Structure prediction request, 220 residues.
Amino acid sequence: MLEAKNILKTFHSEGVVTHALTGVDLTVNPGEFVSIVGRSGSGKTTFLNVLSTLLAPDSGEILYGGEDVTSFSAARLNQLRQKDFSVVFQFHYLLPYLSARENVLLPYMRGLAPVSKDAKLRADACLERVGLAGKGSKIPGHLSGGEQQRVAIARALVKESTVLFADEPTGNLDRETGESVMELLADLKNDGLSIVMVTHDDEYAARADRVIRMADGAVV
Prediction:
């Protein structure tokens, strides 16, 4: 379903050249949970950003549904991100002045156009799915760190995406809360969602169907 072929990415900063990705390959099957691990600087987050189209590679192909998305126009990439790909970050990036429900509805907000009743119902269903039924009216400041991360996951789910990319989704949480987030991801995988997760935690990584280990910009 999702395939990376010979991905290269280099960064240039103040005369320093960093070879972040040096020919990385990966195939993610439908409904598969893949974790990517490695030390800081190994290239795992850069690779996730390339897979999710947040960052363009210098060369190589990212195939989704048989098409190379690196050749897509900006408009087609936006459509892909709106429809098929969702990303959850270590820091949930919720808007503090919006309620949990409104944060979940952000993918549906277009200027001053009203959000449909169906979208609102789906947002509430997604909040319930992540264990936050009845908390849709609360602002992020009135939620725990784990609850805020669950709102971010609900926001990713509301679009009915095919692939969820998670960058250190438990990295900013205590162990108990991190466990609950991992249990939620496992449930979502069992529902058929494909998940690609970057983590520094080998125990959490081992719960995926497959573990990819990176070092010096390559899979090892």
User: Anything to note?
Assistant: Helices lie at 44-51, 74-83, 100-104, 117-129, 145-157, 175-190, 202-205.
